[in-house]
Amino acid sequence: xxxxxxxxxxxxxxxxxxxxxxxxxxxxxxxxxxxxxxxxxxxxxxxxxxxxxxxxxxxxxxxxxxxxxxxxxxxxxxxxxxxxxxxxxxxxxxxxxxxxxxxxxxxxxxxxxxxxxxxxxxxxxxxxxxxxxxxxxxxxxxxxxxxx
Amino acid sequence: xxxxxxxxxxxxxxxxxxxxxxxxxxxxxxxxxxxxxxxxxxxxxxxxxxxxxxxxxxxxxxxxxxxxxxxxxxxxxxxxxxxxxxxxxxxxxxxxxxxxxxxxxxxxxxxxxxxxxxxxxxxxxxxxxxxxxxxxxxxxxxxxxxxxxxxxxxxxxxxxxxxxxxxxxxxxxxxxxxxxxxxxxxxxxxxxxxxxxxxxxxxxxxxxxxxxxxxxxxxxxxxxxxxxxxxxxxxxxxxxxxxxxxxxxxxxxxxxxxxxxxxxxxxxxxxxxxxxxxxxxxxxxxxxxxxxxxxxxxxxxxxxxxxxxxxxxxxxxxxxxxxxxxxxxxxxxxxxxxxxxxxxxxxxxxxxxxxxxxxxxxxxxxxxxxxxxxxxxxxxxxxxxxxxxxxxxxxxxxxxxxxxxxxxxxxxxxxxxxxxxxxxxxxxxxxxxxxxxxxxxxxxxxxxxxxxxxxxxxxxxxxxxxxxxxxxxxxxxxxxxxxxxxx
Lengths: 148, 487
Description:
A: alpha+beta; 7 strands; B: 3-stranded antiparallel sheet
């Protein structure tokens, strides 16, 4: 049994090559930095693990992003605006269903995406996402539905 | 049920009308349908009243007269100080068209007992109306070669044009500041462009050639990196000219500019395919294709996606682009009109072309000094715009009161200026004033055309006899060489 330390964890395996491969993988960045800017201009910088959607990350970090359909491409409430064009280019093209839902979004822009469809990957490190002023579930009395 | 009895009693009358254009009632025929209201509230129809389709027309014959005089045909009609032998022959199909009886048949149930709101998700009334609206969407999509998801119902082609121009330019306003259109567009397109100019956008109004077609080289030269949209109508409502939309679409695709076309006069009359024409947005109108008034549609391409800023805010109906309850009976009517147009297009084309030739030959053989405005080859057959030289326009129209035609287009006939479309063609002002637009449609008969020829030729000859200019031309004097004296 071989042992090796990797990121504060003791790894053990009979195969030394596997151990070094795992240590290399652990050294690669497993999360990216994302900045959410709300409608008043206040910024919140969060760490999002690779593979997690922006909607899920926002909920985990108490960012006010409503996700009425819980990420099933049936609403437009997790609408976010990518603030920089070059980050928008790095995202894959939205599928027709996402585009259909985006058509209904409030305050749609050329660089809008649905937060539940933007999955974190290493190229998106440093991305800034603006939250629109309101969603289709508009409540003029200021009521904010709790994330569910 | 009483409603069914009434509708059954009603439908046999519609059957007479439904056998196509040969059953078009002449103004002297005794055919008079039962008004719906009277039939509904009485067990048996009380009496046959000459039912006119407008309240204004109903004023022309007072009800008491109709009761006392069983044959009101002898009366003639007097309205606005003009008296005529009967209702005029309708030759103004570009202004509007009569509703095809088959379309009315399709619409009536959605007014009478299937009257639900298509957006009511919780009960049968809503579901059946929604199903009917979706079927209408498919029928419209099939006519233009689109996907049903790309069709949005609006209140008419004017609203569709507004959404296309203002919506696209507002959405892409950060990067695209320039729009291109032509000088012969419909007023709603030109007014939307003027509105955009007020907001700070730049608009290029392309001139047209003498035959009314857009010059493709001028269009290529006008496109800039910040051009957002090009808007060229498919068939012109005043002169009937068909623009080369497929070539324009090719140019716009190359430069990655959206192409919008106002196809209100073209849909259902000439074959249209949005993929072949490379069109991104298209406006359609219901009442130009024998459908109901008050409904239109907007085609918006999904791949590559076109985005617009909605002009109507509300509950997000019609994909958020046009909020508001979709009028199910009108939508059903427009869908039925489109389906009928698709199946009858080739037949209509042949028939209307033969009538147009009859009209053209009839007038040209008896008069000279008549010019056709707009290209003769690239023309929709149902629109014939003629200018009569040495005749005063207003007096010609007054003389033609038994033929319903128009001079200029319906939307500009109230103003005294001659048509801007004819001015763009380079037609001289005096010829522009005497232009008459004959509109031929599915329900026009040969007898109507012959009568129209007779009346027009008669009136033109009468006016020319009175015209001093005509006298001078007959004597061989060149009018352009005359020095008119100032008083």
